[in-house]
Design a protein that fits this description.
This protein has 117 residues and is mostly beta strands. The protein has a single domain, classed as START domain (Alpha-D-Glucose-1,6-Bisphosphate, Chain A, domain 4, 2-Layer Sandwich). It contains 2 helices and 9 strands. Helix 1 packs across helix 2. It is globular, with a radius of gyration of 14 Å. It starts with 5 loop residues before the first strand and ends with a strand.
């Protein structure tokens, strides 16, 4: 499997994007459920995480606020659906910028790689 391989599958109702990370499942899992970890990776270059709230349990909510270098503020939020430490993390992810809502995310861990879709 290639490092960071991304696949796209289009369907009549939308698309599924998968990305494989060459990272231990426990690390990827912690990076999604610990606010301090999210602060280090969630925002891409040119953005800064300004707030993070996580209730890491099935049914628990999460939210990340971030700001661009030009001062525009964004936030993403969601709910944890299924959680099995180091094996499965299914959550919703909604990108809120006034009108846009993103898809649900599902993280599954296989053979030392982590698949996010």
């Amino acid at each position: 499997m290639e490092r960071g391989k991304v696949t796209l599958e289009e369907t009549p109702l939308g698309a599924t994007i998968q990305r494989w990370f060459p990272a231990p499942p426990d690390l990827v899992y912690r990076n999604w459920i610990e606010a301090e970890q999210i602060r280090h990776w969630f925002a891409t270059d040119g953005y800064e995480v300004t707030g993070c709230e996580i209730d890491a349990r099935p049914g628990g909510k999460w939210r990340v606020d971030f700001r661009s270098s030009t001062g525009h503020v964004y936030f993403e939020r969601g709910e944890f659906r299924e959680m099995v430490p180091g094996k499965l993390l299914a959550l919703t992810l909604t990108q809120v910028d006034g009108a846009h809502s993103g898809p649900d995310s599902d993280h599954r861990h296989l053979r030392g790689f982590t698949r996010r879709h």
